Amino acid sequence: TASALVFIFFQLAREQTVQERIFNEIHALYDRKPQADKSFRPQDYAELKFMDRALKECLRLWPPVTFISRAITDDIVLADGALLPAGCVANVQIFDLHRDPEQFPDPERFDPDGFLPESVDKRNPYAYV
């Protein structure tokens, strides 16, 4: 959690317009609340659509977990014919996965709109971990 927050703050510090949009989105939600109860509840965060996309984009660029390892229990033959034999360890490099230009056009650019539903629908569902 700490490393995720550091990278989120790092990225948002570089994105003034994104900061302003998040601030305005939070402020608009606050303004819609009744004067008698301005407190935020967990369900309120679902309304912060842009903030959600911006946080996902921060985590795409700077994943706090850079790889996942799994022990292969049965032989697996990949589409290209390569064999992953039982007993070996397979690593998924999340940092590289999140920078695949086939899944994320211009993958080094910070783009919260890459998490709009129409963008997500075009991607492999396993492209963002």
From TrEMBL:
GO MF entries: heme binding; iron ion binding; monooxygenase activity; oxidoreductase activity, acting on paired donors, with incorporation or reduction of molecular oxygen
Principal subcellular localisation of the protein: endoplasmic reticulum
Cofactor requirement: heme
Protein's cellular compartments: Endoplasmic reticulum membrane; Microsome membrane
Pfam families, A to Z: p450 (PF00067)
GO cellular component, one term: endoplasmic reticulum membrane
InterPro entries linked to this entry: Cyt_P450, Cyt_P450_E_grp-IV, Cyt_P450_sf, Cytochrome_P450_Monoox
SUPFAM superfamilies, alphabetized: Cytochrome P450
Keywords: Heme, Iron, Metal-binding, Monooxygenase, Oxidoreductase
Topology versus the membrane: Peripheral membrane protein
Function as written in the Swiss-Prot or TrEMBL entry: May be involved in the metabolism of insect hormones and in the breakdown of synthetic insecticides.
Family: Belongs to the cytochrome P450 family.
Name of the protein: Cytochrome P450
